[in-house]
Write a structure and sequence with these properties.
Layout: H1 4-8, H2 13-19, H3 25-34, H4 36-39, H5 41-55, H6 61-75, H7 91-104, H8 110-124
Length: 133
């Protein structure tokens, strides 16, 4: 994943592609639906916040790079700490998502929160998102 200084140097779509190598929308949905019990709903909500931030037309390339890098790390089945290890398995994924949330925080608005909550309710059942935030 990129460090903050690398993100400032992004100038083109080709630069963005370097960071989104492991990201795919289908991979994200597979991961979200397959790991809720082990990863926790909050981690999935954070991933969805980032997903919807990256969809915003006014989202700068450096933010998209951080988001796609973190989501790619979240999706990637080979981690520093394997996801199958109870309790600590998603620690590295959470760290990547936290980094990207820090970069993207100014773009997380009520619309993004609503989209993420609605998606969680669509996937896991109405009312699932009631205790988030």
């Amino acid at each position: 994943m990129a460090n903050v200084n690398d993100l400032d140097e992004l100038k083109s779509a080709e630069d963005l592609d370097r960071y989104r190598g492991n990201y795919s929308e289908s991979g994200l949905w597979d991961k979200v639906t397959g790991c809720v019990k082990s990863a926790g709903l909050t981690l999935i909500y954070e991933a969805l916040l980032l997903y919807y931030v990256a969809q915003k037309p006014n989202c700068p390339m450096r933010v998209r790079a951080a988001v796609y890098g973190a989501l790619g790390m979240f999706i990637l089945p080979f981690d520093l700490i394997p996801d199958m290890i109870p309790v600590i398995g998603y620690t590295d994924d959470a760290a990547g998502l936290m980094f990207a949330l820090g970069v993207a925080h100014m773009f997380i608005d009520d619309e993004v929160r609503a989209l993420a909550r609605n998606r969680i309710d669509e996937i896991f059942g109405y009312g699932t998102s009631d205790n988030l935030d």
